[in-house]
Amino acid sequence: MGRRAPYWLALPGWIWLGIFLVVPIAAMASVSLTTGNLIDGFAQTLSVSNYSDAIAKYSTQLVRSLVYGGVATLLMLLLGYPVAYWIAFKGGSRKSMYLFLLLLPFFVSFVLRTISWGFLLADDGILFGTLKGWGLLPADFHVLATTVAVIGGLVYNFLPFMILPIYVALERVDPRVVEAAYDLYASRLDAFRRVVLPLSLPGVFAGVLMTFVPATADPVNAAVLGGTGNTMIGNIIQTEYLVNSNYPTASALSFTLMAVLLIGIFIYARTLGTDNVLEAAAR
């Protein structure tokens, strides 16, 4: 029993994953190869053409989602790393308060926060309406239904998922190591580049994964903040499932998106060097 105890303890988790992850994915894989419609029913025909047809029809939205997700992730990294660095090294005794303030928006629903962002960016809203009234912006100036609004919403909603893992990694950096770099006549930039940044790579790696994947597949921000020219692949999958009842196409698009994201994650991991990341995490 002693040697098998870890396996018994992990068994409930594996059962949960099997029921609520593996089984739905297998069912979706089966549906993606069917043909038919909601009235006549769907038949399993192993129709691989569902994938090629879906990609050919919605390639624009797929590429747009990857671009939006990539740009939003890069902006979150540029904005989030300094915040995480400041909290970790300059937060002092108020670190817990800063982290609480960072997580405070999550006490409100994701959809409501996005709608509130829409009110803020409205043409005659609190911000732009006031600026137009003061004559600081032209009357036809608008942000809603643009790429800027969608990417801005993605950054706003997922930014804490970038900051938190980077903060955890930076929190583990021993200040004495940085002081040793200064003692060896390293400048602040050299100390950051050669000591702090490599040790924070595990947080950067985790933060990019935790933001790029949901940002690319997110249907809410494009629906609330975007226009007809900002539709993302998540909106297409949602429409095919819930509106058109075109389950094979929706399932094929879901698997295509999953495959593209997994390939991108693998390339990212190889480029960054997972061995280096794991070595830094173990220090």
Could you characterize the architecture of this molecule?
The chain has about 280 residues and is mostly helical. It has a single domain (about 60-280), classed as MetI-like (MetI-like fold, Orthogonal Bundle), CATH 1.10.3720. The protein is about 75% helix and about 5% strand. The chain has helices spanning about 5-30, 50-90, 95-105, 110-120, 125-135, 145-170, 175-185, 190-215, 220-225, 235-240, 245-270, 275-280, and strands at about 35, 40-45. Strand 1 and strand 2 form a beta hairpin. The model has no long low-confidence stretch (mean pLDDT about 90). Keywords: Cell membrane, Membrane, Transmembrane, Transmembrane helix, Transport. It is a multi-pass membrane protein. This is ABC transporter permease.
Summary?
The chain is mainly alpha-helical. It has 12 helices and 2 strands, in the order αββααααααααααα. β1 (34-37) and β2 form a beta hairpin.
